[in-house]
Write a structure and sequence with these properties.
By secondary structure, the chain is an alpha/beta fold. The protein has a single domain, classed as NAD(P)-binding Rossmann-like Domain (Rossmann fold, 3-Layer(aba) Sandwich). Helices cover 48% and strands 15% of the residues. It is built from nine helices and seven strands; from the N terminus they run βαβαβαβαβααβαααβ. Strands 3-2-1-4-5-6-7 form a seven-stranded parallel β-sheet, with helices on both faces. Helix 4 runs parallel beside helix 6. The two termini are 32 Å apart. The mean pLDDT is 96.
Length: 246
């Protein structure tokens, strides 16, 4: 296990950083993609100063040729990708009757099409090696919907549809495919929301608080060991009880 390679898309964000750190602590070799080299190198330097070595590979996951080239770069640097965490995501919020085609397409391309773009280049290798772990980072809003997020909710719901189909196709090859659906997490993006709005969000969470990025990283790590090999096609909700489905 210690030599396995993990690729985390969107790894420089709040949840992505926590996932990278947890995987490195677990002995995995970890890579993530980037678009802005200056920001990525600064993030990498900070990670190094904290004791975490992460490999960087340039690539826009919303673009298939770039995503494929990024995967091949990771393979050249570290070896075949055994674990893929599809974590990259953006928001372009707005009520649907005012939503522009660009707002729709940007979110679908980055949050959903990226899942195809990055998974397709790694799946054949996983099937050949008879082992793999693929995890989508979806959202509570992909389960319950959200006002002003038709694009985001559609993409996040689509991620789990991808999960359950891919899980069926690849179960006999030792590959598990699962989803983690976070609720509201105390990342920079959420903390930038006005305090009164945040208070209304927290009031809807039974645990009475926002989640921590480390808690999502733990949920991801649950699916990785060999002992989790019989768990596939699952959606693990990590939302403090805000949305409870079964």
């Amino acid at each position: 296990m210690a030599s396995r390679v993990a690729l985390v898309t969107g790894g420089t964000g709040g949840i992505g950083t926590a996932i990278c750190k947890r995987l490195i602590t677990g002995g995995y070799k970890v890579a993530t993609n980037y678009r802005n080299e200056e920001k990525a190198r600064a993030w990498q330097a900070q990670m190094q100063s904290d004791g975490y070595e992460v490999t960087l590979a340039k690539g826009d996951v919303s673009n298939y040729p770039e995503a494929e080239a990024m995967v091949r770069d990771v393979e050249r640097q570290l070896g075949p990708v055994d674990i893929l965490i599809n974590n990259a995501g953006i928001t372009r919020d707005g009520t649907f009757h005012k939503m522009t085609p660009e707002q729709w397409q940007d979110v679908i391309n980055t949050n959903l099409n990226s899942v195809f773009n990055v998974t397709r280049p790694v799946i054949e290798g996983m099937r050949a090696r008879k082992w793999g772990r693929i995890i989508q980072i979806s959202s509570i809003n992909g389960q319950k919907g959200q006002y002003g997020q038709a694009n985001y909710a559609a993409a996040k719901a689509g991620m789990h549809g991808f999960t359950i189909s891919l899980a069926q196709e690849n179960a006999k090859f030792g590959i598990t495919v699962n989803t983690v659906s976070p609720g509201y997490i105390g990342t920079d993006m959420v903390m930038a929301v006005p305090e009164d709005v945040r208070a209304k969000i927290v009031a809807q969470i039974p645990t009475g608080r926002l989640g921590e990025p480390d808690e999502i990283a733990y949920a991801v790590s649950f699916f990785l060991p060999d002992e989790a090999g019989w768990i596939t096609g699952a959606n693990l909700s990590a939302n403090g009880g805000q949305y409870m489905g079964w």
